[in-house]
Amino acid sequence: MKNEIDSKAALEQWLASPSRSNDVVFQGLDLTPYEPQFLALDLRGCAFIGCRTTEKLAAHISKFKCISIPPLPGKPFDAFRTTLYTPDELLAGFDPAHPESYAKTPDAVIYAHYKNSDPGDLENVLARRIHDFSIADALEDNIGDWTGKGVVGVMGGHTVPRGAPAYVAAARLARTLAREGFLIVTGGGPGVMEAANLGVYVAAHPDDALDDAIRELSTAAVFDHPQYLVASYRVRALLPSPASSHIDRSVGVPTWFYGHEQPNVFATYLAKYFENSVREEGLLAIASRGVIFAEGSAGTLQEIFQNLCQNYYQLYRKGRSPMILFGSEYWNPPGDGTTGRSKKVYPLLMKIAAEEGFADLIQVTDSIDEIADIVRAQKLP
Known about the structure:
The chain is an alpha/beta fold and 381 residues long. The protein is built from 15 helices and eleven strands.
């Protein structure tokens, strides 16, 4: 496996004592200040992905027939980025006093480019595919750096209003798990997803901080409210992250496929993709300590059965991980489940899981404490 160097610090460390050069992939770096060092090296077998070089250095790289993919200009995003986004990066330039300023943020500009691009434009399609690969690589690195107890996914509907029972329950659940050292990952959007990231965000604060935050957020309860993002910024101003805290980190994994939804500002990092299918598969795959499904509709159902498939075929790890349906009246209602918004999913999941002997990992509950016990008991890394 080639050694990947994707930061200035790692590059300078390697250049101080170069190892065999043919086992190195350089990714997303500005190599122009290091031209003299590289010109003195035998670069056979190296790969240069999205790196900026001088003409002289590019010729030197070419001499050794290295794989070299230059940066792709003219895009509002870096296809070869090496780290996850942060909310502040995607929302740079947003002024809460002028909510319309969102239209000029990097997040909105990238979405506009994505939405308005010719779907047959090979260069744009290629740039987005490379970007998503880069994000997947950065997400793997980010999760790998986690030193806590493991990764727990919290999924649920994007239309659940702030302050609704499912929103409050998801926030309290995520707060409980974060305080115990679990890393919470969500779909990075509004509704239940925001609630879980919010729960982690306030975990280092006293308990009543969550109530205060939800009360403030409920003044703009749905994601298409014109003050939705403004209310988020008010909460961040009222409850800044304690500098000494180690329990307020969470990851959101959103997509520009649903780019009309503004970014979730309570996630610490955002692994934002273009392709929703790639995003969904990767999001569920990293939740090794289990996935919790609060109420939701089509998108949440897709995640439930995608997670079931991952467990059924044991695609990403040697063992399986719990699937917890949060809300018995929603996921296992009495009768045939054809009335109201509830979805009678639990019996079908149990039937399929029983075929492969993991029905014990399918749970439906209304108790935060029971969910925490299930997650604690899971022994996978």
